[in-house]
Amino acid sequence: MKTCDQRRARRAWLRRPLAVLLVAAFAVPGLTPVTAGADTTANTDDKSVAVPTGWWTYTGLTVSDVGAKLRQNNARLTDVERLDSAGRLAVTMVANRGAYAVPGWWWYVGRTPAQVADLLAANDARLIDIDPHATDAGTRFNVVMVANSGSTARAWSWLHGVSATQVDRHVAASGHRLLDLEEYQERGVTKYAVAAVANTGADAKAWQYFYGQTASEIGTRLREFGGRLVNLERTSSGRFNIILVRNAGTDAFAWWYYTELRSLSRAAALAGQFSARIVDVESYLTPVSGTLVRRYAVVMIDNANAATRRMREVFAPTFLDANGNPKGVFGAYLKRAGGSVVTNLNGSAVIDPASSLKALHHLRALRSDDSLGANFTYYDYPNSPYNANTSNACPIASDEVAANRRTMKLGDALETMMVNSDNRTTRGVALRYGGFSGLNTTAAAAGMTNTRVRQNIGCGYDGGLRNDTTMVDLGRLYEGVHSGTLLSGTRRDAFWNRMFGGAVDAGIAGIVKDEASKLGKSGIADAFIDEASWRVKGGSYGICQDRAPDCTRMIVRSEAGRLTLPVKSQGTVRNRTYVFGSFISDVVVPCFGCSSETVFLNAYSKANNELFREEIRKALMTW
Prior knowledge:
The protein is of the alpha+beta class. The chain has helices at about 65-75, 115-125, 165-175, 215-225, 265-275, 305-320, 360-365, 410-420, 425-430, 435-445, 470-485, 490-495, 505-520, 525-530, 595-610, 615-620; strands at about 1-5, 55-60, 75-80, 90-95, 105-110, 125-135, 140-145, 155-160, 175-185, 190-200, 205-215, 225-235, 240-245, 255-260, 275-290, 290-300, 330-335, 340-345, 375-380, 405-410, 500, 535-545, 555-570, 570-590. Helix 8 crosses helix 9 (about 425-430). The two termini are about 50 Å apart.
């Protein structure tokens, strides 16, 4: 395994729009009106709204579990799928506020058609999601409905127990656009249930629907129509019924769809990778080697703000394959200290960031009462499986004996850890302050809810153990130190002064000069750069997981820290501070140190600097 530390960022890349991703699913075309439109609110439904918001998806929940999650998230359901005869559910929910707020909504499980009709009347509501399923007592429906009054009032319709021909006749006669198209079996006969709205006014969209599509046919339909999916339902034949709307011109935005996913958590991870929101989930059983296994199909739409979307496009040319699938995992996070998040591209992805996690060890030591002048013990590792007898060694307990013992002052050890990224002093900090347990206690105190230390840094994923954190968690650490809630006074100063940084690097300086030139302010670029500063900790792994000559080689790079930009207010320079993080993880390369790896590393380095472009421009505009 190759391990080293990345302390600086480099950069270089193209921008291009993201492509629709892969899928699986005969064909009767639907009505195609001449108008189209993206939605700014969820007053009709939420499947064409690309306003960023909080959302969640879960599987294997009971009805009670779903209720608890709704309360916890202050959310409403947008999609419900029955998984099994025990009534466990897969659900998707969205924050019930802002563009997604509705005046009233309800959900019910296991209801007869007559009961659904009664509930619709009692609530003065309309359906946005239907999930029919067979039971011993007959067909039952899980449904989600919203108030059909005020801003959400619509001319609408729903059908159940009908044939495809009846659906087609209804669409043609009513002028309604389908929102949900569900196929089910009733006494061996294929039936359909649909929910639809009048395709007029602000709701008018160019749209189509098809039955029984294969994977390749779905791709063809999308290309021919210039559309995107809003409903994807798998049939008992293994094909898909689909509804699509036009996705072109001013109404176009990024979207993705997948089938044959092994888990809903994988779907959520993909959504996080693209800063997308899942709008449709389909759970089904499919035969694999003679056994039925559960798979998921999902449709996602853009959930990113402009800054996050731009960063996604910066990563895309190198870190997406020809089908738009990610190569490994990547992300970037930027937040104004004490303020709002600027960019969050997969910032909540749980990864092992290699040496970037040493900031936690740094914090752990400085929250102790030990003097920085105290003697500090660490060890050499002559029998390390990787990089023996170097600062990049993988620490092993059997080498922690008197013959290998070394000492220095605590303050010097912390600087060696944070500037030189010495794995030996890092292990020394862990040994001195309660091992992994002590580090995890500190992470919890810092609000790093997705951080767990399980492995010595420098040992990669040996024994199947990885350290966990997120860029959001590292941001919490740095913001907590900056604000004084985690460290204060001289201890806080020591935290920053023993980190790599100070003056910003050439990459960030290049962004400053570029943006200053665009603003006609090239003359102040150098002064601006002189006032800017950063403190940063990077991490790097090159991992051959099975140690075999033909091993799968993967690279990891990460970087997190604090950036301060100068802004002027009435002629006075003030600091505007940000916390940030970026990473690539589990990116497969054919060899270490070859041109293929270099392409990935250069692209990642560019992305690091590009993360700050918008905020640098804003700061320059005050000068």
